[in-house]
Amino acid sequence: AQSVTQLGSHVSVSEGALVLLRCNYSSSVPPYLFWYVQYPNQGLQLLLKYTTGATLVKGINGFEAEFKKSETSFHLTKPSAHMSDAAEYFCAVRGTGFQKLVFGTGTRLLVSP
Amino acid sequence: DAGVIQSPRHEVTEMGQEVTLRCKPISGHNSLFWYRQTMMRGLELLIYFNNNVPIDDSGMPEDRFSAKMPNASFSTLKIQPSEPRDSAVYFCASRGDSNEKLFFGSGTQLSVL
Question: pLDDT, tens digit, for every residue of B31-89?
Fold first, then answer.
């Protein structure tokens, strides 16, 4: 079975500051890992994903995440926050083959001027 | 492509009434997922289909909930009878066979009074 834990239901940063959203996963098989973003009144959109290969994954809007097997982590980062980054971010995990995507509880990112 | 289409966008009903939520997946996608999102429980997978067949419905909360996918282009989630605790945003998502990315609809905001 797979699961993800997102540390911190809310993260507040100033515009221009580093964004770090934490995600740890548990999986009995090699995981596929995802970060999704949800803007108000919208569905989720894929930011980036890790399946195999390079452990540092770059996504849209300047976000990136690094798969660290030894730490079972897949933290999301962005060097400089923009006001438009304010949203809820979900980490998700799926095993190989046809399996359901399991989401974390989400982290709301607040960006102040 | 118009993306995943859900209807209605908003639904307000009285306790005890039947509610039917509709979803049209992206053409060519063969996997369809129903999620429920609440403040208390976050994003929960209710059921998912592959090639119109329900694969895992363990997330369906109780017998009041049922889902169907009569063909590749349409799915329904029905709640009968509805209760106030069913109030949530219900998302439909679809995925292609060789694509790990989930595409989400805009959701149906359900309020049961």
Answer: 999 999 998 888 899 999 999 999 888 889 889 999 999 999 999 999 999 999 999 99
**Sheet containing A3-7, strands listed edge to edge, beginning at the edge strand earlier in sequence:** A3-7, A19-26, A73-78, A64-68, A56-58
Indicate yes or no: CB of A43 within 8 angstroms of CB of B106: yes
Place of tokens 């009074």: B113
Phi, psi values for residue A35, rounded to 5° = -125, 130
Is any Cβ of chain A less than 8 angstroms from the Cβ of B25? no
Token pair 């999301």 is found at A76
Across the interface, do B45 and A100 touch by the CB < 8 Å criterion? yes
Residue of B47, B92, B102 to mutate, interface with A, max A Cβ within 10 Å: B102
Q: How many Å apart are CA A59 and CA A106, to the nearest integer? A: 18
Give the C-alpha distances (Å, rounded to integers) separating A82 from A30, A77, B27, B69, B87.
Answer: 33, 13, 35, 41, 33
> Does the distance separating the beta carbons of B42 and A105 come in below 8 Å?
yes
